[in-house]
């Protein structure tokens, strides 16, 4: 806490002197760093700045004192103000002194009753030392809380959460387009983010920490000095007494966010990361309030009041593969559709897209338009959830789309996927719903056990062959063509499969039974 001149005047040791401000009333928030008793007409060289000068008026009573020069000396030396006790040496402050002080808006206070200067100095010095200790202690806590987060790769939310713990105020991370990337604070999202873009644009942007704007916000830039990409903002009015602490914490947090961004060198950009957090919160139920969801989406530039088309894309890579290419590819395709969209990763190899739609009919067409813009081989399956008529419907639509994208069969090779909806899943939907039932696992073992017991490379080769035969519904010519074999060799492979499975695959019911077991196995295998 900074000790200001206003604070000093309210101390009991000073208040007993009935202080009256004669000039500089608008400068009482100046910080007082020390108290100094002086009767010198020229204090140059005796002050270091921030001192409150106490005087009993000897210097003012001397006939040769240049009162205007005296005020200049105090001001030029950095004094915070002058307090003069009236009484034995001066009964009233000289007009020349008051006029000179008012010309420079320099604080001059007259003490109309006797005071004990030693009590004032002891009280102020004790508070100054305590304030310095508290500031040092606070700085140490802030360093411990925020310092390690950058190199540890902490998320923006975690860094902002530490800020809120330290300063008890909301903190927002935005990009250069004034879109909210992350925020934290014990305030409703709709209050923090209301009209964010327009309000944020009124806050000065500078190379260093700034304080200003209509609402007196504090902000500090984020990113390397020559490549700033955003800023941290405290979107509440900050009093001067707390400004230094807020500035210090915000600057340490900006360093942590910058380091995290550089160390991670994330494949997905900050906007995609923010969209992903919003979508993940909706799916997990952490953002159940539609008003808060709408506020966050608007802060990301997704301001829609109409239906929302929900699409989920499953990547063609493995779960442990880096899926930055998938996020980038889907985001580019969504942009090419030329509709306002939010694109974010839900989990590894699963990306959600929300489209702003003008009508329910337009929402039905958008998934197919997205497929047209996708690159070949990027997406293994693309699902469309039911159109969300409002933000309240969004969790259900996202959950359905994720389910469909997970269950839908992958397209072969480098082909583009077709749009799959819940009604297209057929038996796959039923098998997914009972995927944890031990009876289903027993059924899979009973139909595919001999194949699953093979060595891994041989097992996959055999399953691939079986899958091709079943997908062609036992038709030998298409099967032979599909596996690049002659008819004789194809017949031989099928007979080998039948011996291994101890099953007659020419029988439609037997073939269906094996096919159901294979679909169930593939679905279960995709979760591992």
List keywords for this structure.
48% helix, five-stranded antiparallel β-sheet, 528 residues, 21 helices, alpha/beta
Task: Please describe what this structure looks like.
This protein has 528 residues and is an alpha/beta fold. The protein has helices at 5-9, 12-15, 58-61, 67-76, 95-103, 117-146, 156-167, 189-192, 196-200, 240-264, 270-284, 290-299, 324-336, 360-373, 394-407, 427-433, 438-452, 456-471, 476-482, 487-501, 508-526; strands at 19-23, 34-37, 51-55, 81-85, 108-111, 171-175, 180-184, 210-212, 217-222, 230-234, 308-315, 341-347, 350-356, 379-384, 419-420. The strands form 3 sheets. The chain has a 5-stranded mixed beta sheet. A 5-stranded antiparallel beta sheet has the order 7-6-10-9-8. Strands 12-13-11-14-15 form a 5-stranded mixed beta sheet, sandwiched between helices. The two termini are 55 Å apart. 38% of the residues are buried. The model has no long low-confidence stretch (mean pLDDT 83).
Write a brief structural summary.
The protein is an alpha/beta fold and 528 residues long. It has 21 helices and 15 strands.
Q: Which range does the strand content fall in?
A: 5-15%
- Round the Cα radius of gyration to an integer and report it: 36 Å
The unreliable regions are: none
> What does the overall shape look like?
rod-shaped
Number of helices: 21
Look at the helices and sheets and give the structural class. Answer: alpha/beta
Strand order of the largest sheet: 1-5-4-3-2
Write the layout of secondary structure elements.
Elements: H1 5-9, H2 12-15, E1 19-23, E2 34-37, E3 51-55, H3 58-61, H4 67-76, E4 81-85, H5 95-103, E5 108-111, H6 117-146, H7 156-167, E6 171-175, E7 180-184, H8 189-192, H9 196-200, E8 210-212, E9 217-222, E10 230-234, H10 240-264, H11 270-284, H12 290-299, E11 308-315, H13 324-336, E12 341-347, E13 350-356, H14 360-373, E14 379-384, H15 394-407, E15 419-420, H16 427-433, H17 438-452, H18 456-471, H19 476-482, H20 487-501, H21 508-526
Parallel strand pairs: 2-3, 3-4, 4-5, 14-15
Antiparallel strand pairs: 1-5, 6-7, 6-10, 8-9, 9-10, 11-13, 11-14, 12-13
